[in-house]
Amino acid sequence: MSPLLEVTDLRILFGRSRREVVHGVSFALEPGQRLGLIGESGSGKTVTALAIMGLLADNAYVSGSIRLAGRELVGLRDRDLAPLRGDLMSMVFQEPMTALDPTMPVGRQVAEVLLLHQNLGHGVARGRVLEVLAEVGLEDPERVADAYPHALSGGQRQRVVVAMALINRPDLVICDEPTTALDVTVQATVLNLLDAELDAVGASCLFISHDLAVVSQLCERVLVMLDGDIVEQGTLAQIFNAPTHPYTRGLVATARLDAVAPGERLPTVEDFYQHPGRP
Amino acid sequence: MSLYEVDHVTRRYGRVGTSGSVLAVDDVSLAVEQGQRLGIVGESGSGKSTLVRMMTALDQPTSGVIRFDGDVVSHRAERDLGGLRSSVQLVFQDPRSSLNPRMRVGDIVTEPLRSRLLRVSGHVPTDHRARLAEVLESVDLPLEVADRFPHELSGGQRQRVAIARALTPKPQVLIADEPVSALDVSVRAQVLNLVRDLVAAHGLTLIMVSHDLTVVRHVCDSVIVMRHGRIEEQGPSEQVYRDPQSAYTRELLASIPTFRVT
Ligand SMILES: Nc1ncnc2c1ncn2[C@@H]1O[C@H](COP(=O)(O)OP(=O)(O)OP(=O)(O)O)[C@@H](O)[C@H]1O
Ligand SMILES: Nc1ncnc2c1ncn2[C@@H]1O[C@H](COP(=O)(O)OP(=O)(O)OP(=O)(O)O)[C@@H](O)[C@H]1O
Ligand SMILES: [Mg+2]
Ligand SMILES: [Mg+2]
Question: How many domains does chain B have?
């Protein structure tokens, strides 16, 4: 089976100084597979996801290859790429306000995504929107649909964005820290929904998270990024039980907050791994 | 007298009876002592952010009163909030919307040092460059980010800028709304260690909103659990963690994701 997504030697540079923040990463995602992407803050997880979506800022330079369902995305004009977004691939953004228009009630924004790719009457669309909002665990979908983003709590916004990403049942769903603003009970609801939706359509998922426990519940394979490189990849069991890179070992060890007595100093990755060139 | 007194505070958004009306905070009373480390946990939409916005006088209660250091701070003009503004710093939940997109990181972080209210209070660091370097280092950001704009940073880097900004004027009270939820485990550990050190060295009073009870248990001595705008349970954090009384707190603890590796 050929992979749904194949990224080869992807490099991302920014600005006039062409600072390179992703240094030629390669990975593949099979149809229906869930791939976790973990790694240090600033290591390039979000920009890698944005490159796939074609949503990097204008001052970004991308080289290498990104093939989605056999089609090369690098170098594609936005006019050709835009129709794929929301339909073939969608993304849950790390910061919900990136995806939300502050001047429009959120229900209309979710409906717009739906209507972009399907020809439905507005009444039908509204019904479908309320349904999805309820599925992501929002108790009062009517009120939330009519609210502007600023009138919602952080976790409510995040769930609206999850609803938007799932409503067209795309083949590839990229989730960038989709549950960070959620309390654990709602997080469980959202993860279960994601799990069921991905299964229902056989969609693939690139799941970015700093929460290793969450990754372990949803993903089969894991990539570890550090300073713009993928330093390790493997199955869940390989990464969690027998990490080979010292950085990964530190990451796994520091994840267990409950293993440390309250008030004690927490271990950090630096206890396991010293960055070259940093004090 | 407690440092903070929240007295039967209610906040309703929208008019009663209209479809957009929400009782976000419903008759909440609490007291925070000098040097206390209070955690606020609870369901998404339970009123945590609304409560801390009112405690920092960025939003006003529909009824009830909030006092800081003996002075009423609810429904007061900005010019009468000197004591509150010079002692309390707030880290917002969503750095994307709280950091000015047109300012460089260096100016954002040192902005509180230029505030007139803070300068008159006297104990504010005067060497801005030195303080900038110091706080950036404490949140593990290289000095070179000072020249960048917020959108040129990663999510976790932005969150750390927001924390650094709040620490710059050496506040007496730090109120942080989900300060570590977007951080990877290592930076999270570092920031929590930093907060622990500040509490130990300067007797910092901390009010931390978090959806993560294990984080709260680690840094806070007491906790309130909120649900539907009300306080569902409160007590010493270790006790609430070990022996939760309300069904919702038990559910919160039971839903903490655990490693599932076969
Ligand atoms: N628009 C931009 N211009 C310049 N540099 C940028 C831009 N966006 C991101 N960067 C830099 O690229 C690097 C990778 O950022 P990215 O957002 O991918 O990190 P991340 O792995 O998602 O981190 P986090 O876990 O903190 O979200 C960071 O050093 C960041 O400062
Ligand atoms: N400006 C506003 N106008 C109308 N309703 C609002 C406004 N701000 C918040 N609300 C509503 O008030 C309730 C409480 O919101 P709040 O932001 O305080 O919750 P929270 O406990 O911080 O949740 P989260 O964990 O998701 O951040 C929510 O139902 C929200 O939709
Ligand atoms: Mg990111
Ligand atoms: Mg909140």
Answer: 1
Mean pLDDT throughout B82-110? 90
Domain, as residue range, for B183: 4-255
For the CA of A155, the closest atom of ligand 2 is 26
Between residues 46 and 65 of chain B, which touch chain A (CB distance below 8 Å)?
A: 49
When comparing pLDDT for B194 and A3, which is higher? A3
Task: Quick: pLDDT tens for A205-224.
Answer: 999 988 888 899 899 999 99
C-beta A209 within 6 A of ligand 1: no
What is the CATH number for B47? 3.40.50.300
- Residue B154 inside a domain? The answer is yes
B262 inside domain: no
Q: Could you tell me if A40 and A227 are in contact, meaning their C-beta atoms sit under 8 angstroms apart? A: yes
Counts of helices then strands in chain B (DSSP H, E): 11, 10
The pLDDT value recorded for residue A49 is 97
Helices A106-117, A154-166: inter-axial angle, 10-degree rounding = 10
**B261 in a structural domain:** no
Among A39, A95, A213, select the one facing B258 at the smallest CB separation. A213
Residue B68's H or E segment, with its range, is strand B63-68
Over range B78-106, report the average pLDDT.
Answer: 89
Does the predicted TM-score (pTM) go above 0.80?
yes
Q: What is the distance between the alpha carbons of residues A268 and A35, in angstroms, rounded to a whole number?
A: 25
Residue B13 lies in a domain: yes
A23 vs B: CB within 8 A: no
Closest Cα in chain B, distance from residue A22 (Å):
13
Domains in chain A: ranges and CATH? 5-274 (3.40.50.300)
Residue type, B247: A
Q: CA-to-CA distance for A163 and A189, rounded, in angstroms?
A: 12
ipTM (interface predicted TM): 0.84
Distances (CA, A) of A16 to A11, A19, A29, A60: 16, 8, 32, 9
A223-275: pLDDT as tens digits = 999 999 999 999 999 998 899 999 888 888 777 666 677 777 777 777 777 77
